[in-house]
């Protein structure tokens, strides 16, 4: 009897996921020339995205006052990931490749205040956040404390979708964690890695306004995207508690970047002030 029930839920979840994937693979709207369309997952309850990578990209678009719109349908890129962008008929998958593409396409003069040595440090911090810290966050949210997702997703998805998200996506994230390598460490080792990464960012930031000095640079988009999850959205996690208890400069840093580039923050979070901006063009 028990295996029958489990089997039923498994089949139901698979059917639901197939339906969701089909919906996401359907054709999208046309994007006006000169406007970037950012394809991303939905808004979060405490940050304007459920994921650090779209928040990175949207902060970049705002930082450079690039006209853009969002598509929150959740459609995946040609690489099977999200976020990705479309600009004048060209599609670019991956947050960093998308930003690099816009820098070339729009001739943005970016990070000119950085020496080659500083640019190297900025790159190293971006990789630390996106390729190392990120995986400790995935472990914390999907393996260590998957119930936290119930609260995170409750205003975003209906209960069945949360069930599918937690179980199907959780299963794939565990596989990714194993493939990437983070998932092979013990719980204590993973947390030590995450804590050391956060501490390294905090130590390098010190009292500076932005990570590379008093002017924002591209790497701030990446760090802000990642740290916003830790500071505001990973409620009940060790990461969240640690930054609030021990690394207040990271909290202040996030508040500073938020206040500068996201005056409409509350409206973009799925809380009481939320205003749906799907397909709305931001022209600054
Ligand atoms: N390096 C990519 C990472 C994007 C990424 O990992 N996106 C996740 C969501 S947060 C995703 O699409 N996962 C689906 C999968 O890996 O199958 C970027 O910067 O865009």
Automatic annotation (TrEMBL):
<dbReference type="GO" id="GO:0005737">
    <property type="term" value="C:cytoplasm"/>
</dbReference>
<dbReference type="InterPro" id="IPR026928">
    <property type="entry name" value="FAX/IsoI-like"/>
</dbReference>
<feature type="domain" description="Metaxin glutathione S-transferase">
    <location>
        <begin position="195"/>
        <end position="257"/>
    </location>
</feature>
<protein>
    <recommendedName>
        <fullName>Failed axon connections homolog</fullName>
    </recommendedName>
</protein>
<feature type="signal peptide">
    <location>
        <begin position="1"/>
        <end position="19"/>
    </location>
</feature>
<comment type="similarity">
    <text>Belongs to the FAX family.</text>
</comment>
<dbReference type="Pfam" id="PF17172">
    <property type="entry name" value="GST_N_4"/>
</dbReference>
<dbReference type="InterPro" id="IPR033468">
    <property type="entry name" value="Metaxin_GST"/>
</dbReference>
<dbReference type="InterPro" id="IPR040079">
    <property type="entry name" value="Glutathione_S-Trfase"/>
</dbReference>
<dbReference type="Pfam" id="PF17171">
    <property type="entry name" value="GST_C_6"/>
</dbReference>
<keyword id="KW-0732">Signal</keyword>
<dbReference type="InterPro" id="IPR012336">
    <property type="entry name" value="Thioredoxin-like_fold"/>
</dbReference>
<dbReference type="InterPro" id="IPR036282">
    <property type="entry name" value="Glutathione-S-Trfase_C_sf"/>
</dbReference>
<feature type="domain" description="Thioredoxin-like fold">
    <location>
        <begin position="52"/>
        <end position="144"/>
    </location>
</feature>
<dbReference type="InterPro" id="IPR050931">
    <property type="entry name" value="Mito_Protein_Transport_Metaxin"/>
</dbReference>
């Amino acid at each position: 009897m028990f295996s029958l029930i489990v089997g039923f839920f498994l089949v139901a979840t698979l059917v639901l996921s197939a339906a969701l994937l089909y919906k996401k693979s359907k054709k999208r709207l046309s994007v006006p020339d000169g406007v970037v369309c950012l394809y991303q997952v939905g808004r979060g309850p405490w940050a304007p995205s459920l994921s650090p990578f779209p928040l990175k990209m949207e902060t970049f678009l705002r930082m450079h006052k690039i006209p853009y719109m969002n598509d929150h349908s959740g459609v995946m890129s040609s690489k099977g990931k999200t976020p990705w962008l479309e600009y004048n008929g060209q599609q670019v998958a991956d947050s960093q490749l998308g930003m690099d593409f816009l820098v070339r396409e729009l001739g943005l003069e970016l990070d000119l205040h950085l020496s080659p040595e500083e640019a190297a440090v900025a790159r190293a911090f971006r990789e630390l956040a996106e390729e190392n810290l990120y995986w400790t966050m995935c472990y914390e949210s999907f393996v260590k404390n998957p119930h936290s997702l119930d609260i995170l997703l409750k205003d975003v998805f209906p209960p069945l979708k949360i069930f599918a998200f937690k179980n199907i996506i959780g299963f794939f994230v565990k596989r990714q964690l194993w493939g990437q390598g983070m998932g092979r460490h013990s719980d204590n080792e993973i947390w030590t890695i995450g804590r050391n990464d956060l501490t390294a960012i905090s130590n390098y930031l010190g009292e500076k306004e932005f990570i590379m000095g008093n002017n924002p640079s591209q790497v701030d988009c990446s760090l802000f995207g990642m740290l916003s999850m830790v500071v505001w959205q990973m409620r009940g996690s060790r990461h969240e508690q640690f930054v609030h208890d021990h690394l207040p400069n990271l909290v202040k840093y996030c508040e500073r970047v938020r206040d500068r580039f996201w005056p409409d923050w509350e409206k973009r979070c799925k809380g009481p002030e939320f205003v749906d901006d799907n397909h709305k063009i931001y022209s600054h």
